[in-house]
Amino acid sequence: MTWAYIAGFFDGEGCISGAMYRQSRAAKPNRYGGSGYFEAVITQTRDVGLATFLEMQQFLAVRGIRSRVCKKRAQTANRRETWGLIVKGRRHVITFLTGIVPFLRIKRIHAEDVLRFTRVYPSLQGRPLERDDVSTPDLVACYQSGLTYTQISEIYEMSRYGVKRRIRQSLDGSSHG
């Protein structure tokens, strides 16, 4: 498996999408960080697509790019089931696009536009909502020592919302027990 092979596949069967959501009291950051998303998707029919995507997924995983392979059912009788390789999350999509851009022909400008966008608007990158390697007692200890949610989110490179939610849940749980 090579970046050139994946780029050729992506040129023919792939797409890049993204959305940013308006901030409001009701809006909550998603699990990919920030209140928005980026994703790169390649689709293919038949089981040969599955074997190819599993090989691609392994290639990407070795390079630190998280992806998933999934099956989409046919919506109507005249459509076939498809397999999809999905790369989600800003950091993973950026790494993926950086790998394939030199080999793209058809979707090169679109991919370069997305990469430029991510450089022009670094403040939209967001931080992960959750981090498994950060313990809630550590967050609570920082808060009780007088640090603000914003300061804690910067120290642990998490979203402010994720820090605040975990601290409040912990403090609310301990005050009721």
Topology readout:
Layout: H1 3-13, E1 14-20, E2 36-45, H2 47-62, E3 67-72, E4 82-88, H3 90-100, H4 108-120, H5 136-144, H6 149-156, H7 160-175
Antiparallel strand pairs: 1-2, 2-4, 3-4
- For this structure, the CATH topology of the largest domain is Endonuclease I-creI
Overall structural domain count: 2
Going by CATH, the architecture of the largest domain would be Roll
- Please report the number of helical segments: 7
Main beta sheet? 4 strands, antiparallel
Mean pLDDT comes to 81
Overall outline: elongated
Portion of residues within helices:
40-55%
3D architecture notes:
The protein has 177 residues and is of the alpha+beta class. The chain folds into 2 domains: 123 residues, Roll (Endonuclease I-creI); 40 residues, no CATH class. The protein has 7 helices and 4 strands. The chain has a 4-stranded antiparallel beta sheet. The N and C termini lie far apart (54 Å). About 7% of the residues have low confidence.
Concise summary:
The protein is an alpha+beta fold and 177 residues long.
